[in-house]
Amino acid sequence: MINYCESISRLGRNLKDLLDITEQLVNKGVRVILVKEGIDTSTITYKLLIGIFY
């Protein structure tokens, strides 16, 4: 399953929440794509990219 999100700001209130939410979704087998920032959780570096963009 793929979940598209418009932007980082639409998914979490702060960096910790954002990382927690994405981890929960990834652990359930959901691929999250943040369209505006071009971040995809299928890559190894998505946590680093979220930290940089947030």
Q: Please state the overall shape, judged from the principal axes of the Cα atoms.
A: globular
Low-confidence stretches: none
Helix content range: 25-40%
Distinct helical segment count: 2
Helices and strands, in order, run as EHEEH
Bin the strand percentage.
Answer: 15-25%
- Round the Cα radius of gyration to an integer and report it: 10 Å
Mean pLDDT: 88
Biggest sheet, strands in spatial order? 1-2-3
Oligomer: single chain
Q: What CATH first level would be assigned?
A: Alpha Beta
What is the fourth-level CATH superfamily? Resolvase, N-terminal catalytic domain
Give the second-level CATH assignment, the architecture.
Answer: 3-Layer(aba) Sandwich
**Structure class:** alpha+beta
Give the CATH topology: Rossmann fold
Count of distinct structural domains: 1
Main sheet overview: 3 strands, mixed
The count of DSSP E runs of length 2 or more, i.e. the number of strands, is 3
The N- to C-terminal Cα distance equals: 25 Å
List the helices and strands and how they pair.
Blueprint: E1 2-5, H1 15-27, E2 31-34, E3 39-40, H2 46-53
